[in-house]
Design a protein that fits this description.
With 479 residues, this protein is α/β, with parallel strands linked by helices. Helices cover 39% and strands 21% of the residues. It has 14 helices and 22 strands. Strands 14-15-16-13-12-18-19 form a seven-stranded mixed beta sheet, with helices on both faces. A six-stranded mixed beta sheet has the order 9-8-7-10-11-21, with helices on both faces. Helix 3 packs antiparallel against helix 6. The chain is globular.
């Protein structure tokens, strides 16, 4: 078993560099878990050299053979659920049982994408000017995957699996918050038999490595998940070398609850996602627009759901919600709550740090109601366990207010009538929409945002095609 973070270049796992190591902190206790080696620009250059040497052979490997390796990786990952979940749980503070679920879902991602690797067919058609037209899809080339900490298994797999299925070599830069999780995950691929140089992983802070990644003319695509602010910077850097980009950025998901909705079910569904991972989920429902006829009933139901959460150490089986990953994130949330209250909002439950927890970055599950539209939390992504509630009397007004955001990742709505459901589905501005459910991320369907929430799609066939170039060829021949 690997017990410390490593990086991978050219088929070799290494645990030291000339740069200072950095400490990984347990967000439940604020104690150091382990130290991690830090990579820099020279490691990017070395990884690119190996990726370039492997790209031609890997790109020519048949999709069925790539699929075989992906299925083998899924099998190995399935046998290491507890080991990887333990590292994930310690590093980001998610309760262990919930961490296990993410790893298990990772095996499903690999298996589904493996099936698509078998079916990357082109097209053939007759040209109106004579001869034959063919449309072929080729791997885009070397890919850099830059992933966040909040889903340290799922997010890397959403880059690794489709890139490899498409025939690309990939250099992964996982979040520095969860380096052991990334190490254990990548070992599943190398143990499955992926050739040296096809998958590589660099650990450490992103600044120096990102500059080298975007300066490289050999890296042809960057797949990034993270904040909108960082995504905008990376998109600008990508312009210099005209890199392909997939950007899955921030969200600030609205929820419209109509007076004919199943109130108890709507509260239970939204609470499940709102307080998952301590609210540190880009598609978490946050801005609740409630028909005033049912506003108090829904609020009480959501408060009940929030208060049922057990906040505690990720290694305690009784815990159902852990801490925030950073002290700074908790402070940001406390500032947003204070601003909302100062502008007239009411704290219906939570609002502060749990009593008796003097260590760790814990914050109570929080419900605010009567939140005015000019409160900061109505416009700034909170990324934490805080639900903000307001009311409406006219559905068109509710939809307009829900859409009044720079973000457009996920939107949700709960209604009884088919007409209202169809209206909400059509008019809510988001890349993914859940009507009477919060299930908007599926292996077989595209996932991604519009507006400031991103470019490109992950998931489904669409996610693999993001890693492929399209080549049209017109062939004629002598009579």
């Amino acid at each position: 078993m690997t017990t410390s973070p490593q990086y991978l270049i050219g088929g070799t796992y290494l645990d030291t560099t000339d740069l200072p190591t950095f400490s990984v902190i347990n967000p439940c206790t604020e104690e150091v878990l382990w130290d991690c080696p830090q990579c820099g620009a020279e490691h990017v250059a070395e990884a690119v050299k190996h990726a370039k040497a492997s790209q031609k052979t890997w790109g020519a490997t048949h999709g069925a053979d790539r699929a075989t390796l992906l299925r083998k990786t899924a099998e190995i990952l399935g046998g290491r659920v507890d080991e990887i979940a333990r590292a994930l749980s310690l590093e980001i503070g998610r309760p262990f049982a919930q961490a296990q679920n993410e790893v298990r879902r990772g095996t499903e991602i690999l298996t589904w994408v493996a099936g698509e690797a078998d079916r990357l067919f082109g097209e053939t058609m007759t040209s109106r000017s004579g001869g034959r037209l063919t449309v072929k899809r080729d791997p885009v080339g070397i890919v850099a995957g830059i992933t966040p900490w909040n889903f340290p298994v799922g997010q890397p797999l959403q880059k690794l699996a489709p890139a490899l299925a498409a025939g690309c070599t990939i250099i992964l830069r996982p979040a520095e918050v969860a380096p052991l999780t990334a190490t254990l995950l990548v070992k599943c691929f190398t143990d499955a038999g992926f050739p040296d140089g096809v998958i590589q992983m660099l650990q450490g802070a992103p600044q120096e490595m990102s500059k080298a990644i975007f300066a490289s003319t050999d890296i042809r695509k960057v797949a990034f998940t993270g904040s909108t602010a960082v995504g905008k910077l990376l998109l600008g850097q990508a312009a210099d070398t005209v890199k392909r980009t997939s950007l899955e950025l921030g969200g600030h998901s609205p929820v419209v609850v109509c007076d004919d909705a199943d109130i108890e079910a709507a509260a239970a569904e939204t609470a499940m996602l709102k307080f998952a991972n301590a609210g540190q989920v880009c598609i978490a429902p946050t801005r609740f627009y409630l028909d005033e006829k049912i506003a108090e009933d829904f609020t009480q139901a959501l408060v009940k759901q929030a208060e049922a959460r057990v906040v505690g150490d990720s290694q305690d089986p009784a815990s159902t919600m852990g801490p925030l990953a950073h002290a700074g994130q908790r402070q940001k949330l406390e500032d947003l709550i204070a601003d909302a209250v100062a502008k007239g909002a009411r704290i219906r439950t939570g609002g502060g740090r749990p009593i008796g927890k003097n260590a760790g970055y814990f914050l109570q599950p929080t419900v605010l109601d009567q939140v005015p539209d000019d409160a900061r939390i109505m416009h700034e992504e909170p990324f934490g366990p805080v639900a903000v509630l307001t009311t409406f009397t006219d559905l068109d007004d509710a939809i307009a207010r829900a859409n009044n955001s720079e973000y457009g990742l996920a939107s949700y709505a709960f209604a009884g009538s088919l007409a209202r459901c169809e209206k909400l589905a059509d008019e809510l501005e988001a890349g993914v929409v859940g009507i009477n459910n919060i299930e908007v991320s599926h292996h077989e369907a595209p996932f991604g945002g519009i507006k400031a929430s991103g470019i490109g799609r992950e998931g489904g066939r669409y996610g693999i095609l993001e890693y492929m170039n399209v080549k049209a060829t017109h062939i004629t021949w002598a009579a």
